[in-house]
Amino acid sequence: MEWVLMGLSLAGAIIGIFFGFKTYSDFSSVARLKKQHAGVHKLFFNKWYVDEIYEALIVRPVASFSNFLWKTFDVAFIDRVVLGFGRVSEWTGQTMRVIQTGSIQVYAVMFLIGLLVTLGYILHGLH
């Protein structure tokens, strides 16, 4: 069975090579065939319009959807979240600047307040 299929493939290849050689050895017949089968020639010349179909069915819809997501979701949500984190960070830095004076006495008082709050929480939690 395999030999039959291989023989058919070989016969098809030989017939195709013979037909191609016979057709393209005389350029006047090529021009005549091109004119006679203009629609088929245009289809082959434009590669079955695969690129145009791919552009229309895949590339343009994906690009349009990406553009929509960028203008709506990215600008409206993600940019606001990122800018919000930046504002929170800036506000925290401004607030900590008041506390972070470089004075050891202030740090000792803050440590003492934190210690008292922690002990109060622990002792209150035991009752």
Question: What would your notes on this structure say?
Answer:
Helices cover 90% and strands 0% of the residues. By secondary structure, it is mainly α. The mean pLDDT is 90. It has helices at 2-24, 27-36, 38-45, 50-99, 104-126. It contains five helices and no strands. It has a domain at 1-45. It is rod-shaped and about 105 Å long. It starts with a helix and ends with a helix.
Element string (H = helix, E = strand): HHHHH
Radius of gyration of CA atoms, rounded to a whole number = 39 Å
Chain-averaged pLDDT: 90
Give the count of helical stretches: 5
Globular, elongated, flat, extended or rod-shaped: what is the shape? Answer: rod-shaped
Instruction: Give the oligomeric state.
Output: single chain
> How far apart lie the N and C ends?
91 Å
Helix content: over 70%
User: How many distinct beta strands?
Assistant: 0
Structural class: mainly alpha
